[in-house]
Amino acid sequence: MSKERDIxxxxxxxxxxxxxxxxxxxxxxEERFTDEVAKVLSNAIKRSQKTxxxxxxxxxxxxxxxxxxxFSESKQSIIDALLPIMGQLIRKTVTNSIKQFVSDIxxxxxxxxxxKSLKWRxxxxxxxxxxxxxxxxxxxxxxxxxxxxxNKDNGLLIEHAGSDDLLKDSNAISxxxxxxxxxxxxxxxxxxxxxxxxxxxxxxxxxxxxPKVYLAAVVKGNPTERxxxxxxxxxxxxxxxxxxxxLQEETYQNNLELNDYLREKLVTKSLSDKQKxxxxxxxxxxxxxLVAVLAYWSYSRKLALNEVVEQSKQINGLYVQKIExxxxxxxxxxxxxxxxxxxxxxxxxxxxxxxxxxxxxETIIQKRIHQTLSDYNGIQSNYExxxxxxxxxxxYNDNQLLLSKLYAINGVxxxxxxxxxxxxxxxxxxxxxxxxxxxxNQAFIHxxxxxxxxxxxxxxxxxxxxxxxxxxxxxxxxxxxxxxSDCSGALSNKYSQKRATIVNNILIESxxxxxxxxxxxxxxxxxxxAKNLSLLGAKFNLKEL
Amino acid sequence: MSAAKKICLIxxxxxxxxxxxxxxxxxxxxxxxxxxxGVSISTKQLIxxxxxxxxxIWDIAGFEQDGHYAHYMRGVHGLIWVVDGTEAESFKIIxxxxxxxxxxxxxxxxxxxxxxxxxxxxxxxxxxVHALKEFNYAVYExxxxxxxxxxxxxxxxxxxxLNPQ
Lengths: 545, 165
Hints:
The complex is a heterodimer.
Chain A: H1 2-12, H2 14-28, H3 30-51, H4 54-73, H5 75-112, H6 115-127, H7 131-139, E1 140-151, E2 157-162, H8 170-187, E3 197-200, E4 203-209, E5 213-221, H9 225-241, H10 243-246, H11 256-263, E6 268-270, H12 271-278, H13 281-314, E7 318-326, E8 329-336, E9 350-356, H14 362-373, E10 379-384, E11 387-395, H15 396-407, E12 414-422, H16 433-442, E13 444-446, H17 453-472, E14 477-484, H18 492-509, E15 517-521, E16 537-544
Parallel strand pairs in A: 8-9, 11-12, 14-15
Antiparallel strand pairs in A: 1-2, 1-5, 1-6, 3-4, 4-5, 7-8, 10-11, 13-16, 14-16
Chain B: E1 3-10, H1 17-26, E2 39-48, E3 51-60, E4 78-84, H2 89-100, E5 109-114, H3 126-135, E6 138-141, H4 150-162
Parallel strand pairs in B: 1-3, 1-4, 4-5, 5-6
Antiparallel strand pairs in B: 2-3
């Protein structure tokens, strides 16, 4: 019966039995089952975490135990893994502590054994505060002792850096500050109204607000505006760099990196730093000294230059265009009359680089007159403001030449000729007329400009006299008046003609027969050389017909 | 490092919120009544089910003014409703608060029916206790004066916060 039933079962449920056998095999084979679970385990954990926290809680204890076991059984591996992190952390903490310790010792040494410290001890006693407090006031500008990073919504402490002794219950402090923030928001009915600073239990808190979290720093001393700005920058940086962890409460007070970042912001600014900042007085003094030396040096040079300038001004016949410093001496550029006396510079390192010119200085004109008169004996002169008076004796034949020479001197405008003529020739006979001809032909009428007619008439005096004498004796003559110039300008020929005409007109006015006079120009090429006044005038060519 | 959780005590003025906190923190009770202005903050560290937890307790001033507590409730993790078993008015205010802050219904909470030592003055009805149990995980008859159920109540809330249900 049983056999028949088995056959019937196998006929009716063959396929189902095969599936059942397959599943049985799958479940009962541990190795295969493990493989199957391994395929879905990771996804199953992920999904369970989202939908049901039970698995997480269930795993908590075995994981905790597993970690403890791993610590006890594989100490060296754990140490090796943690060493790079812990070592760095410990090193940093120890370094900071040593720095602080050394700084405190230094300050104590600096301050404890001085007259200043005695004074401060006295002041502390008078003010009723302890010496360390007075020391702090006198040496520290501000000190950031604690920084709290707080969740803005629930007031939970995210991280705290600073002394644990100072504020033992940092959670309570965080909540209290948040309560005050809330109170302010409630009072002003605005979410934008924020606490900026507060004093709790003699601790000054500076608050920097961000959108998710805010920062409260405990500051001793007198915080600066710059420090407050700094905190605002810190809170902005925290929002930028740690935005993901700020709202993950499970990481609160357990984020080493964030804690490290806050610790770096615990700074002390001592007054000695401030003094270092404002120690510009010595620099000001040094700068002033340098400026003074420079000013003195510049003043000395100026004095020396002024001396040279003054000396150059005293030299008649020197026209200074420029003075340049040349090593220890000076170089003067300008114009120099050959008769100028430059001996005043003989004892100084002064170099003269000059071009010659004819000076109109009275002293130089006088020197030039004396030089001209030195060729003649027995003539005295008196020159003043262009007017020259001549006294003494001169040979009749020398008189005209001398006058021409003197009129050729720049600055001699008028000559009062009081010379007594000696050796005057007799002109009674016709053959003696040749002397008169020679005198006229040797004459040179100086005409530096076209204005001073009296001057030209004075020069023409003997020429007119000789011509009138010839006319009276009915001597037929031809007088050629030759206008001359220095050829220094484009209009030289034109002016030469004008000079000849001036002479012609004066002669006609003096009743000289105009038919006997011819004017000509001594034509010249322009040479662009310096003006030479002595060449401006008129000459004669007198012939008997 | 223990997890920190913000819990708020809310209830009508003079129901004994501050005294409950003082009893929980310091095991002390003051006979003199001093009204709380704004909020008073305390912290207490507990070990519940082998886990460390720091309760940051916000003892908010009595709810006689509408809406002034909203700022203090931000980000709260757990609530303790406090009613006075000897004052019927203190029960009524719960509805007012629940209506003005509907979001707090999602926050894990326990309720303390305080002043249970004043047995003769008790006015609370069983129906009211039942109503409280409907939106609280647990309801405790407490006495800030004797300390009865105070620590138990706070610990229960701490446990709820560590193991959300």
